[in-house]
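REQUEST FORM: STRUCTURE PREDICTION
Request ID: SP-0412
Submitted by: Lab K.M.
Chain count: 1
Length (residues): 254
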Amino acid sequence: MLGTGTSQGVPVIACDCKVCSSMDTKDNRLRCSVLVSIGEENYCIDSGPDFRQQMLREEVKTLSGIIFTHEHKDHVAGLDDVRAFNYREKKDMNVYCAPPVEEALRREFHYAFAEDKYPGVPSLKIVPITTNPFELSNGTEIIPIQVMHYKMPVLGFRIGGFTYITDAKTISEEEKAKIRGTEILVVNALRLEEHISHFNLEEALAFIEEMSPKKAYLTHISHLFGTHEDISAMLPPNVYAAYDGLTFELNSAS
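STATUS: Completed
RESULT:
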C-alpha cells in the first residue's frame, strides 16, 4: 500500500487536529496508490502527487506499467516522474487507462504527447482499457470493476484473489458479481459521516459483509475519520485500517 489517504493526504496542510498532529506513523497517509508485484514485474495502480516519494520510500527499481482508476488529480498528478524508469529501463511506460483518463492525461501532460518532444519528457505508451478483462504485458489477467464516484465512473481492479476499489459510492449488482470470491478486498472508507461520493464506514462495512472476503482493508482515509488506533477499535475481526507501507501476499492460485 503506497498511499492510503484521501485527496488532501494526512496530515492536512495547516490542520492541527488530533489526527494531523498524531505522532503515530500510521496516521501519515499519502495519496491513494498500491504497488502490485507479480513475479519480477511491478505495476502501480494510480500515480498521485506523492508518486516520487512512494517509489523512493519503497525502493522500487523497476516498473512495468501504471493502471489508472480515474482521472482525478490525486490519482494521476505524479505521472511525470515515470521519466526515471524510462531512463533506467530504456523503454516506454505502459499506461493502462479508460478513454476519459487518456483524455485527461493528454491534456495535463500534453508535452509528453507532442510530435516534437522536448528531450527528457516522459515516454508513455497508452494501452486502452474498458470494463472488459485485459492482460498485462506478462499475461496476468485484470478484471476491471466499474463503480460510481457520485456521477463519475471509476474502475476498481481484481487480480486473482485481490480486489482494489477506491473512490466508490455505489456499485451495481453486475459489478459486485465480479468481486465475489475475493480473498483480500481493499475498499475506500472516507470517514464516519456520509459523503456524496465516497463510502463512509457504515457503507464500507456493509459492502464488505456482502462480499465476504477473507480479509478486508479500508483505504482513502480522511483525517476526519480518526486516528489509526481509533479506527481499528471500530472494526470487526476480519477488517483492518490499511496504512502506508502495509504489505500482504497472495499465492498464485488465488
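NOTES: The chain has a mean pLDDT of 96.
Reviewed by: T.R.
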